[in-house]
Amino acid sequence: MEANVIKADDLSFCYEESSEGISDISFTIDEGEIVLLTGNSGSGKSTLLKCLNGLIPSVTEGEMKGLLSIEGENYSDLKMHQLNQLIGSVFQNPRSQFFTDNTTAELVFPMENYGFSPEDMRARLESLKNTFGLDDLLDRDIFSLSSGERQLIALASAVTMKQKVLLFDEPSANLDYGNAMKLGRILKKLRDKGYTVIVADHRFYYLSGVIDKVLFMDDGKLVICNSEDEFKQGSYNTRSFDIFSINIPFSENASQEKTVARLENVCYKDILKGVNLSLNKGEITVLVGNNGAGKTTIAKTLCKSIKPDSGKVDIDGLPFFIMQDPDYQLFGTSVENELELVKKDPKAIDEILEYLGLSKYKYKHPFDLSGGQKQRLQIGMGMLCDRELIVFDEPTSGLDVYSMLNVSKEIKKLKEKAGILVISHDYEFIRHVANRIVYLNDGVIEKDFILDESTLSELNNIFMQMQEEE
Amino acid sequence: MKAVKINPIVLIIINIIAPSMYIFMSGKYLQIYLLVFASALFILMGRFKRLAGFWVVYALMMGLYYLTMQSKGTEFLGLFIIVIVQSVPCIALATILVTKYNSAQLLSALETMHIPRVLVVAVTITLKYIPTFRREFSYITESMRLRGIGFTWKQPVKSFQYFIVPQLFRCAALAEEVTAAGLVKGIDAPMRRTSYYEEKVTFIDALVLIVFAAGLAGGFVWKQML
């Protein structure tokens, strides 16, 4: 008989400082299952995840009721360090999920804490190296790794204590398409080895065909689907399971003659090898390519943050650059003030806030907004500015489907007044906004085409190719 | 010459003792002694670039000190500068700790000194926050440049606020994330912590400490002789 690895009975949690929380959560997870935990932003998904990894109640304070048990032991009877020998956590953020900055140090870190002897550590390290194929990754600076490699280290360090239950918090947010698909395959292998895997994510295309159970959070309440099919038949937008079959109308092409920026034969170190690109007003150009292909470097040359070794960058003034992480570029004391910093035009600001549905947050501090709202505020800044080129770096990473659709709609409106360059690996989002696809591979532009009915297969091929390369 | 590896404990001890010695002995002697001692350590460890940087900063500040000491009106500035100059060798030594050793090594070193775990964790997180801070700071200044929000002396408070506020929010978020990262990796485990990077105290380590102590003792003798 299969045993319940995790069991929740009437679990509820209420944050100390707000009315948000989860209530009446009951479910069981069996050994060797892959469980998807999903739901919109603010639905209680992360709250439930924090209950599972023990950060509630040990770090986040609030009122917890009900029962939660793992392998027959009650969570409330377990100390944090006991729980973490049973359950391994992989967080979303590469910046802070590592405690050290060296891969080997990171992998042995838990073992040091639990008092392993150096011989045991070496043996375990060797076995982790073989299981996860870490031969080239040991003793490296974590920040010099690619996102896929980092994910692998995070995963390996989560099972150093031979934990059999693994929790993932939005793994796809910081992975490109190829690496996300690779993660899906790794998870499947882990399941075959008897691991129980719980993945909390907005996107789940990389889990297609491997999900055993779906825990769907809807406004603090739980809906359970006992199979992937049952989940697909539900009312939630699950189209993104098979991203290539989605039928999305092509974004209207309003490209104008006016060129807003041009790169001529740009070379930079061994990252860019002779890039030619010209961007037009009214056109949304999406730059695709695997991590390390040089996408961000192109954006940086356009922003004049780096000077190319050779070649010409032709652009009037600076582009408006919207980074992946909005926290780095919000400086205002309120939402209204944030927009005023771009341009003092109260009438335009009110119109934009109204359009973006942010009017009621006008006097709130930008940091109090949710991820999707921050992203929209940044788009609002783009609408208000007088720059000719607006550059987005992964604008949909970490957004749920509905926020992604809103962001797409707003970016499409932006092109009326400027040229737009988007760096993205979010296929669904790309299909919504792109007029033109530029495929960058190893520092060279391999493909550059207008996206329509006739070239769709070409885009799909690029994604297939990216998957194989990783 | 091969760069010598020095046990982080030695550096930590020196960093604790050196600044506190200013209380007990002649500032002038200690200042020169620490300058020579730190320079020698840098050479031993093969950190020539950092040594050059350290000398430039030192020379500049000394120059400034002599300039301000020329007139009565600016003397108070000079006195202020000399206090900072005296801490330059110590700061230079501390930077080696942060850049050359990873946090696991620092943690192990501090553990062997029988410092309580709570303090060890706090110190390690703080030390590791410096490089993170530098990275984050560069993102923020870059994004200020792109948004056209520059630092202006016309509105120093306002300009300062632009980069301090996001930084503070990052701090709060980061502190929570780092704590979580440590907790799920068993940092609260009650058993005695072991170390993968066993830092044995070598002959060189002992020698460095002896030389350091001898230099300090020399300072006391010198003071007596005056």
Automatic annotation (TrEMBL), chain A:
- The lineage's top-level taxon is Bacteria
Database matches in CDD domains: ABC_cobalt_CbiO_domain1
What Pfam families does the annotation carry? ABC_tran
**Topology versus the membrane, per the UniProt entry?**
Peripheral membrane protein
Query: GO CC annotation: what is one?
Result: ATP-binding cassette (ABC) transporter complex
SUPFAM superfamilies, per database record: P-loop containing nucleoside triphosphate hydrolases (SSF52540)
Do the record's keywords include Translocase?
Answer: yes
Kindly list the places in or outside the cell where this protein is found, as annotated in its UniProt entry.
Answer: Cell membrane
Identify the residues that the record assigns to the ABC transporter domain, covering every copy. 6-244, 255-467
Q: Does the keyword Membrane apply?
A: yes
GO molecular function annotation = ATP binding; ATP hydrolysis activity; ATPase-coupled transmembrane transporter activity
Q: Which InterPro entries match?
A: AAA+_ATPase (IPR003593), ABC_transporter-like_ATP-bd (IPR003439), ABC_transporter-like_CS (IPR017871), ABC_transpr_CbiO/EcfA_su (IPR015856), ECF_ABC_transporter_ATP-bd (IPR050095), P-loop_NTPase (IPR027417)
Annotated keywords? ATP-binding, Cell membrane, Membrane, Nucleotide-binding, Repeat, Translocase, Transport
Its family remark reads:
Belongs to the ABC transporter superfamily.
**Known function:** Probably part of an ABC transporter complex. Responsible for energy coupling to the transport system.
Kindly provide the name given to this protein in its UniProt entry: ATP-binding cassette domain-containing protein
UniProtKB/TrEMBL annotation, chain B:
Q: Which InterPro entries match?
A: ABC/ECF_trnsptr_transmembrane, ECF_transporter_component
Membrane as a keyword of this entry, yes or no, is yes
Q: How does it sit in the membrane?
A: Multi-pass membrane protein
Q: Which UniProt keywords apply?
A: Cell membrane, Membrane, Transmembrane, Transmembrane helix
The terms describing its cellular component in GO are: plasma membrane
Where are the bilayer-spanning segments? Answer: 6-24, 29-46, 52-69, 76-101, 201-222
Cited Pfam families: CbiQ
- Protein's UniProt name: Energy-coupling factor transporter transmembrane protein EcfT
Q: Which organism is it from?
A: Pseudobutyrivibrio xylanivorans
